[in-house]
Amino acid sequence: MTALIVLLLALGAVMFVLGCLNQRKLYWKLAAWQYRNPEANEPSDAALGLNRFGLITSGVLLLAGAGMVNAADNQPQGYSTSQVRAVASAAASKVDSGSGSGIGSSSGASSDVYEAVNDEGDGNVEIRSAGGGTYELTNRYGKNPVCLTVTVENDLNIGGNSDGDSPWSHSISTSVNEGPC
């Protein structure tokens, strides 16, 4: 992209400078040699003025084009797939550490997932539920999807715990896959 910007700037500058020069002298230096009788073929003042206008307009348009290409090149593209995957993996690690005693639920894990993604993604990753414990993460522009799956398993320990804790325990497992859910 840089080469295109430099090319457009150079061409625009040349056109603008040519438009600012004396058009009659420009004719005699660049075009008169083509004619057997150059005095008889010398352009009118209106033609020379139109040539000047065309050169300056072309120069301005090329410079504006260089500015537009530069602006498009500098526009943020958002997180790449690998960056979205890294956020999903970090969020999955946080959610995985939520296993413990008590009855775990998918809805409880859901809020943990949203919180973990928002913490890890710094606002650069969007999350939406795809249902059934799956969440689709994309960059802020909706591109580069990654699928995060969260599974909560509850276990009942009939004998109870010697610690006096709840007889219920749950485990959370996660997986991260590239692509939409």
Please give a handful of descriptors for the protein shown.
181 residues; alpha+beta; five-stranded antiparallel sheet; rod-shaped
Rounded to an integer, what's the Rg over CA atoms? 33 Å
Strand element count = 5
Give the helix tally.
Answer: 5
**Structural class computed from helices and strand pairing:** alpha+beta
Give the helix proportion (percent range).
Answer: 40-55%
- What order do the strands of the largest sheet run in, or round the barrel if closed? 1-5-4-3-2
Major sheet details:
5 strands, antiparallel
What separation lies between the terminal Cα atoms? 34 Å
Short description:
The protein is of the alpha+beta class.
Structure characterization notes:
By secondary structure, the chain is α+β, with helices and mostly antiparallel strands. It contains five helices and five strands; from the N terminus they run H-H-H-H-E-H-E-E-E-E. It has helices at residues 2-20, 23-30, 45-74, 81-96, 106-121, and strands at 100-101, 125-131, 134-139, 146-156, 168-178. The radius of gyration is 33 Å and the shape is rod-shaped. The model is unreliable at 100-106 (pLDDT under 50).
